[in-house]
Amino acid sequence: MKILRKIEDINRPLTNGCVTIGNFDGVHLGHQQLFAAVVEKARAINGTSVVITFDPHPLQILLPGGIKLISTYQQKEELIGLSGIDVLLVIPFTKEFAKTTAENFVADLLVKKIGVKELVVGYDYAFGKGRSGNIDFLKQQGKLYNFPVTVVQACYSNNQLISSTKIRELVKEGQMAAARELLGRCYQIRGTVRMGKQRGGKVIGFPTANLKFNDEDLVPKHGVYVTQVFCEGHQYGGILNIGYNPTFGEEQLVAETHIFDFNEDIYGKPIKVNLLKFLRSEKKFSGPKELAEQIGKDVMLAKKILAE
Length: 308
Known about the structure:
- The chain is an alpha/beta fold.
- Helices cover 32% and strands 27% of the residues.
- The chain has a 6-stranded parallel beta sheet with strand order 1-4-3-2-5-6, with helices on both faces. It has a 6-stranded antiparallel beta sheet with strand order 9-14-11-12-13-10. It has a two-stranded antiparallel sheet with strand order 7-8.
- The chain contains 9 helices and 14 strands.
- Helix 6 packs antiparallel against helix 7.
C-alpha cells in the first residue's frame, strides 16, 4: 500500500481511482466492508483503490476534550494496509482545512487531484464545512462530474449495529468479547514499556511491563484482564491491570502487564496487548501479601482461560 501523507503528494490523477473517505477509527467490520467494496470495484475497472482519512481525528481539533480513539493512527494504518487497498491518503486535519466546503473538496481533491472514477461511502457519511456533504449532495456531484456513488448500508453483527461509538461503549464497560465481535479482532492497547516503581517483581513477586495512557486513548474499564502480549515477534499469555494501584496509593493511571513465562529486559521496547476477558475490578488490598495472593489466583484463572 502506498501512503501519501498530504494532498500535495498527489502528482497526477490516479488510474481509475475508486475512493472511500472517512475517519475509520478502530477499522471495525463495517469499515472493512467499505474497503472490500472499493477493492472489488477498482479491480473491475483495472483501477486504483483509494482510502482517504485524516490525522488527527477531526473531533480532536473541533471538539473540546476531543475524542477517545479505539486505535492509534499507526494501528489504523496497519489495518487498512491489510485490507488490500492500493493507496492511503492521509490529510493533516487543521482548523483551516475544516473550513473547506463540500463543493471544493469534491471539485479540487476528488475530481482534479485524484481523478475519481467511483466513490464508495457509508450510509451515514457526511463531510465538509458544517457536514454539508451528505449522501444526496454526493450523488448530485457524481452526476455533475460523471462518477457513480455507491452507498454501503449499515453493517450488523448479531442484530447489533457495528459502529465506533458502540465499540467505545463496550470497551469502557469491559465487554471485550462483544467488542471483538464488532471489531473483527481483539481490542488492543500498545505502547513503549516504561520504568515504573519496580514493585511488581521485588515486592509482590509478579514483575510487570508498564504502559502509560495518553489523553486521547480510549481507556477500558479499570480492573484485571486476561491478555495476549506481543513482544519482539513472540506471543505470550498474561494478565493486565488498568487503574491507579490503590493498594499503594498511586495517582497516575497506568496499564501494568504481567507476562507469563517471561524474564527479559524490555524497558524502552514496544509491546502490543490484546485484551481478551475482564476478570475483576481493581480493589485496594491490605498490603503486598494480600495483593500477591490475589494476583496468584488471577494468574491461575487466566492460564485456564487461555488454555481453553
